Amino acid sequence: MTLKLDKKDLKAFLETLMEEYDLFAPVKLAEGVSIYKKIDSPDEVDLSTENPQKPAKEVFFPQSETMFRYEKAGKRYQMTSTEGVERERVILGARPCDIQAFSLMDDVFLGKEYKDVYYGNKRKATTIIGLACPHPLSTCFCSSAGGGPFLRKGSDLFLIDLGEMFIVELLTEKGMAFQKNKFFREANTKEISLAKGIEEKASTKADASVPIGGIDRRSDLMMENPFWDRMHEKCIGCGVCTFLCPTCHCFDIVDEAITDKGQRVRNWDSCLFPLYSQETSGHNPRPTGRERTRQRLMHKFNYFPKNFGRVACVGCGRCILYCPVNFDIRQAIKLTSPKEIKKVKDEVDLTRQ
Ligand code: SF4
Ligand code: SF4
Q: Cα of 245 to ligand 2 centre, how many Å?
């Protein structure tokens, strides 16, 4: 079902949303710094940033999350769980690449064997209002990674920006609940065809040429390849690429205790940090950047596909845009092709062109 929302009604629409839901949306904190956060006022919402710097995964998998609190009561300890979600939630303005990443996170946190209640409760209580990308950035390669700037899959409602208004598509049962929303009106054929034109233009802009297909098989025999010597030599191990990646999900769990009470907290971690893989004995199976860089890429392009049948990269381009030494994951993917890998021994440039 295709409707429209006039931008002059956006603020009022968000106000009514916030009466019923906890609203999460992109907020611009400073020039070039935009994150998804819980909204206190509709004026905070910024839907103009091409793709927020921090991915929307934080709504389901916060950077730091208390799992439970405990306190000594007499001779026993009393525990208070924090796994519940008090109100239904809406994510507004998540981009198709981040929404595709939610389904990869589902594979990990809501698999057959293990179900993470903290992630699962939030996921279940959330309606997703996706926002199309009419202007993919030069670093976006979602179209190479099974996605696209107008991919609707995973959205309950989908918005397309037409300037003065948004086209609103209701895609699921959760989305259809908005059918009678007083701010939505039926879109006419001219507006629908305008949206189609924008979609056609955008689909030619996202890079579809990165050779991701078959990378799991190509990388099977690469564990000891000189490729990894070249890959890690410029990397300073800052971990930015993993923290800003919508599919990275390494974490660490710590107990923070003061005398008789405390809390267990789950924090994002990164496989690029030496401490992440260090064992209690002091031995580290990934002692240098070579092994850690290999782990990052092999997990995305070899181990994850072996476990879940698809790569753990949605081509959002954040790791390319924000890497302080300009490492370009697209160049690395290209180099895994049988023809290109021969060049690895020579001077190859893995930085963003
Ligand atoms: S952002 Fe760049 S420098 Fe930092 S860890 Fe990732 S590849 Fe290395
Ligand atoms: S690896 Fe890079 S391009 Fe791929 S999803 Fe993560 S941040 Fe985006």
A: 5
Q: What is the pLDDT of residues 50-84, one digit of tens each?
A: 899 999 999 999 999 999 999 999 999 999 999 99
Global pTM value: 0.93
Tell me whether strands 33-38 and 22-30 are parallel, antiparallel or unpaired: antiparallel
Residue 242 Cα to ligand 1 midpoint, Å, equals 8
Element (H, E) at 254: strand 251-258
The answer to whether the beta carbons of residues 57 and 105 sit under 8 Å apart is: yes
CB atoms within 10 A of CB 136: 25
Cα-to-centroid distance, 333 and ligand 2 (Å) = 12
**Paired residues of 4 in beta bridges:** 167, 185
Q: Cα–Cα distance between 319 and 254 in angstroms, integer?
A: 27
Taking residue 21's Cβ as centre, other Cβ atoms within 10 Å add up to 18
* Pocket lining for ligand 1, CB < 6 angstroms: 235-241, 272, 323-325, 327
Amino acid at residue number 58: E
| Residues 130/168, Cβ–Cβ less than 8 Å | no
Q: Look at the alpha carbons of 262, 264, 269, 273 in this order and tell me if their dihedral is positive or negative.
A: positive
Residues 6+ apart with CB under 8 A from 188: none
For residue 89, what pLDDT is reported? 97
Report how far residue 97's alpha carbon sits from residue 103's, in angstroms, rounded to the nearest whole number: 10
229 CA distance to ligand 1 centroid (A)?
15
The pLDDT tens digits for 73-117 are 999 999 999 999 999 999 999 999 999 999 999 999 999 889 999
Report which protein residue has its CA nearest ligand 2's atom 7.
245
Residue nearest to atom 7 of ligand 1 (CA): 235
Ligand 1 centroid to residue 326 C-alpha, Å:
8
Would you say the CB of residue 299 lies under 6 angstroms from ligand 2?
no
Which atom number of ligand 2 is nearest to the Cα of residue 320? 2
What's the DSSP call for residue 187? P
Q: Is 105 helix (H, G, I), strand (E, B) or coil?
A: helix
Q: How far apart are the first and last CA of the chain?
A: 42
Q: Which residue has the tokens 């990165």?
A: 210
Q: Distance between CA atoms of 266 and 54, rounded to whole angstroms? A: 18
Index of the ligand 1 atom closest to the CA of residue 236: 3
